Amino acid sequence: MVPSGHLATALPHAAANPTEIDTVTLGDLTPDTGWRRPVLLDRDVIVLTTSGHGLAEVDFRALPCRPGTLLRIRPGQVLRCALPQLDATVVRWRPEALDGFDVDADDVPHWVQLAGEDEDAIINEVSQLTVDASRHRDTRAARSLLRHQLSVLLLRLSMLPSGSGQLSRPEDETFRRLCREVERGYQDTRRVEDYAERLGCSVRTLTRACLAITGRSAKQVVDERVALQASRLLAATDEPIARIGRQLGFTEPTNFGRFFTREVGMSPGAFRAARERPASAAVVRPRPPVDARIDVHRA
């Protein structure tokens, strides 16, 4: 057992182990020690800051971090950190790790500053998971043990006060349904009419919900999701710009270039070049695809 309030250090060699649950350090997430570009994450991740003060960029949004700051990052999002100013323990897992458990990882806040008893409890959970992931990785019971520990950790995090203080509105569910459908179909269509047909409602209903929640139209919400994905791929990969455009439904590179410039304010090439700046520099980022007040990944 790890002493209460003390965080065990994640072991670097765990990064090479393709298990369904493991713990690593921030430095293990990228071979580039300077974090000159964001990292496109392929697993669910929780980042618990253990020392230092600085910023972590998640999908180009700078989030302040200090000891006790916890980030929840989803597969497909991009992460960039200012090292060595920050150090953290990273818990990663694959979707099957939660099969059979009554826990929803999307109930975990995307950013929270832990304090008091909550901080002690979360540190203890992460510490014990880190120790057991290393010590018992080759034992028969390790898979079940780590799954239960991850489930408990996520449940504790989901019970933290949200602090939003907002009452549910009738438009909330319509907006969430639209965003879930956009996640499934943004690579195939940007037409609001297509999403309205899939959801069995009118374009006016979708637009009214989006305006109520975000202040933006349904068309803007869809286009901003496409622009975000383009930004992720441009910043975190070396995929040719034309290929990225084709992945997002643009048959002509010029159409993709015009769309991206309209949404982000600069060309795809200029945006990609900007990724080479130091992580501590100001970042150019697209508008968020949804309002931060609504977590559309929740069911």
Automatic annotation (TrEMBL):
Keyword terms, alphabetized: DNA-binding, Transcription, Transcription regulation
GO MF annotation, one: DNA-binding transcription factor activity
Transmembrane regions: none
InterPro entries with a match to the protein in the record: Homeodomain-like_sf, HTH-like, HTH_AraC
SUPFAM superfamilies named among the record's database cross-references: Homeodomain-like (SSF46689), Regulatory protein AraC (SSF51215)
Gene3D superfamilies: Homeodomain-like (1.10.10.60)
Pfam family, one: HTH_18
Domain HTH araC/xylS-type: 176-274
PROSITE patterns: HTH_ARAC_FAMILY_2
Designated name of the protein: Helix-turn-helix transcriptional regulator
